[in-house]
Amino acid sequence: FKTAVEGLPAPGVMADIQAAIDHASQAGKVGIVGYCWGGLLTWRAACTLQGLSAAVPYYGGGMTAAAEAAREPTVPVMVHFGDQDHWIPMDTVEVFKKAQPDVAVHVYAANHGFNCDQRGSYNEAAATLARERTLAFFAKHVG
Fold this sequence. Notes:
This protein is of the alpha/beta class and 143 residues long. It has one domain: Alpha/Beta hydrolase fold, catalytic domain (Rossmann fold, 3-Layer(aba) Sandwich), CATH 3.40.50.1820. Helices cover 42% and strands 14% of the residues. The chain is globular and about 40 Å long. The chain starts with a helix and ends with a helix.
């Protein structure tokens, strides 16, 4: 499914995300959070869409690729990665951090999917700390 959606002509799924932002903004400021592929879409939204106040990608698959790391976010961004994530190597996270000095990057002793309590990779300590940081970040920028 991800491959099919990624293959859509521009703007692809981003138009749907923009529509959701537009609708939610009727109630006030909008923050976005996403996990894995949703993390990548969250990063893209922070860089290309209008109406956001903050974005928090969790272990965004593909967002540390050179083309993604070269994007410029237009809103504050906080990112969460796991240092044992075999989908997102730490050397690419380091390159991303250098390319994005204004992005708050947090790395946990955890694997991909550490926030999902329905997976074997769930890491309660990492998930709890990431959630606390995320809620504080949204309170500052969206609240």
